[in-house]
TrEMBL record:
Cited InterPro entries: ACOT13, HotDog_dom_sf, PAAI_dom, Thioestr_dom
Keywords: Hydrolase
An MF annotation (GO) of this entry: fatty acyl-CoA hydrolase activity
Protein's UniProt name: Thioesterase domain-containing protein
The keyword Hydrolase is assigned to this record: yes
Lineage, highest ranks first: Eukaryota, Fungi, Fungi incertae sedis, Mucoromycota, Mucoromycotina
Residue ranges annotated for the Thioesterase domain, each copy included: 64-143
Name of the gene encoding the protein in the UniProt record: ABSGL_13527.1 scaffold 14267
Source organism, top-level taxon: Eukaryota
Family: Belongs to the thioesterase PaaI family.
Species name: Absidia glauca
């Protein structure tokens, strides 16, 4: 997982998590290790986080398109990180756990292509965060989308 140094400087918790996820480059220990080496954070601002992902054969189904489970994992991981760029009243310093994840599949994208994931924090409170993600192909077409609800496990955020 890669992150621009200026983004990591602006959002230190985001930088810490990116380094944590990227530390096992090439070594698969956890489910996320199948995607993290191919993910890059390209833009971050209040309540919005943008990623790029390079699709390889290991991410695809038998039809040669990005596997639906991989799409769900990408939306899960990328939108979870978006909780760290919320600058409102309830800032979190941990990404929390999922309570709900919904994914829509519109256009398949094949190996050798790159997708862009744009995650938007819709609302973040003391214990719950609601994030919406749109996924675009290289031609700018919406391919997938997802809604994700996160629950913080950090008691400091609940104060």
């Amino acid at each position: 997982m890669k992150i621009e140094p200026s983004i990591a400087e602006k959002y230190p918790d985001l930088g810490d998590y990116a380094r944590l996820y990227g530390r096992r480059q090439g070594h698969v220990e956890f489910w996320e290790d199948y995607i993290s080496p191919y993910l890059s954070i390209t833009s971050a601002e209040q309540d919005r986080l943008v990623w790029e992902f390079d699709i390889h054969d290991i991410h695809c189904n038998q039809l040669g398109n990005l596997h639906g489970g991989c799409v769900a994992t990408l939306i899960d991981v990328c939108s979870s990180f978006a909780t760290l760029v919320h600058e409102g009243k309830h800032r979190w310093d941990m990404i929390g756990v999922s309570t709900d994840l919904g994914v829509s599949y519109m256009i398949g994208v094949s190996s050798g292509n790159k997708i862009r994931l744009e995650c938007q924090v819709q609302r973040q409170g003391k214990s719950l965060s609601y994030i919406y993600t749109k996924v675009y192909d290289e031609e700018g077409r919406t391919c997938y989308s997802g809604s994700h609800t996160k629950y913080t496990i950090n008691t400091k955020s609940n104060m």
